[in-house]
């Protein structure tokens, strides 16, 4: 009976991870990729400006469903003031019994092509591992199916990206994530049917008034998702620099919407981020509510590089 029980949990986990073609679970992704931590989506954004950025994020999806997806990330990117940006990413997502961890290092090069514009290139390279978390098993941890799954080898993975940015506020970018599934065609890399296949975005920051420090940044992003129709993300970000406050909103064409807020802690280089994603489609009736929390720590910041 225990073997049947653990095998059932295993099957449920697979369904949760791969069944999102209909349920849109992992399609939400981390919402900080749009404004607060663009390095997560595009390695070309690593070390875009002088200074050190440390970011941590946590997202809980389907809060009403046991074993719903949980996403976590840690990133660091740095630029000493030259054309080279360096970065490091640790991602983990867990659905049911199954967890996936990616660890990547990033090299980015920021090439001035005009007085105010830069062409940015980035490459991340590292490893990806999918495994069953024994601590979540309620049954026979020695089940053969668990052992066989965890014997899957760790595979090489990476991301590549390019971006054009200007001091006036223009940001055009494109990235291809999950290179392990393209270059190495590993079995583990194809586990998630809903993995991202490409990411593109364009945005522009507008300053409201000559003497105010208020900016509005409308943005259009377009994402490819394996096993699902492409998704467009349409929205914007309002920043009140004098108050260390920003508010963002996005509509996603998979019938989801996101609202978020970020603020600086008083007399501190720490920034706190919150966002909520809801679903206006059929999923909202039984598996809604996605919450995200993030922290940003900024060091050695100066004016932007020319």
Most strands sheet: 14 strands, antiparallel, barrel
Radius of gyration: 20 Å
Low-confidence stretches: 1-26
Silhouette: globular
Structural class: mainly beta
Widest sheet, order of strands: 1-2-3-4-5-6-7-8-10-11-12-13-14-15
> How many strands?
15
Provide mean pLDDT, rounded.
Answer: 82
Count of the domains:
1
For the record, give the distance between the C-alpha atoms at the N and C termini, rounded to a whole number. Answer: 66 Å
The percent of residues in helical segments reads 10-25%
- Summarize the helix and strand pattern as letters: HHEEEEEHEEHEEEEEEEE
Beta-strand proportion: over 45%
Q: What's the total helix number?
A: 4
Your description of this structure?
This protein starts with a helix and ends in a 7-residue tail after the last strand. It is globular. The chain has 4 helices and 15 strands. Helix content is about 10%, strand content about 50%. Strands 1-2-3-4-5-6-7-8-10-11-12-13-14-15 form a 14-stranded antiparallel β-barrel. The longest helix is centred in the N-terminal third of the chain and has 17 residues, at about 1-20. It is mainly β. It has one domain (about 1-210, about 220-230). A hairpin with a 6-residue loop joins strand 9 and strand 10. The relative contact order is 0.18.
């Amino acid at each position: 009976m225990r073997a049947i029980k653990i095998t059932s949990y295993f099957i449920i986990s697979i369904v949760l991870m791969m069944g999102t073609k209909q349920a849109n679970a992992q399609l939400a992704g981390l919402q900080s990729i749009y404004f607060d931590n663009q390095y997560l989506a595009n390695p070309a954004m690593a070390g875009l400006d002088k200074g050190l950025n440390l970011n941590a994020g946590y997202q809980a999806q389907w809060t009403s469903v046991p074993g719903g997806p949980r996403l976590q990330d840690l990133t660091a990117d740095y630029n000493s003031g030259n054309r080279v940006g360096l970065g490091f990413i640790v991602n983990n997502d867990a659905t049911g019994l199954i967890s996936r961890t990616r660890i990547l290092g990033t090299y980015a090069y920021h090439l001035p092509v005009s007085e105010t514009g830069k062409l940015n290139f980035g490459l991340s390279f590292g490893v990806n591992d999918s495994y069953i978390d024994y601590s979540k098993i309620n049954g026979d941890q020695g089940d053969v199916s668990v052992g066989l799954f965890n014997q899957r080898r760790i595979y090489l993975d990476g991301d590549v990206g390019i971006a054009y940015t200007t001091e006036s506020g223009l940001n055009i970018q494109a990235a291809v994530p999950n290179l392990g599934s393209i270059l190495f065609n590993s079995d583990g890399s194809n586990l998630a049917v809903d993995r991202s296949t490409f990411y593109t975005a364009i945005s522009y920051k507008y300053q409201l008034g000559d003497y105010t420090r208020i900016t509005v940044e409308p943005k259009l992003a377009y994402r490819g998702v394996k096993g699902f129709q492409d998704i467009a993300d349409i929205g914007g970000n309002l920043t009140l620099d004098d108050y260390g406050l920003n508010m963002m909103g996005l509509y996603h064409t998979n019938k989801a919407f996101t609202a978020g807020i970020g603020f600086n802690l008083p007399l501190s280089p720490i920034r706190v981020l919150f966002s909520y994603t809801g679903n206006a489609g059929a999923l909202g009736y039984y598996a809604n509510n996605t919450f995200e929390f993030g922290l940003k720590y900024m060091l050695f910041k100066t004016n932007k590089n020319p």
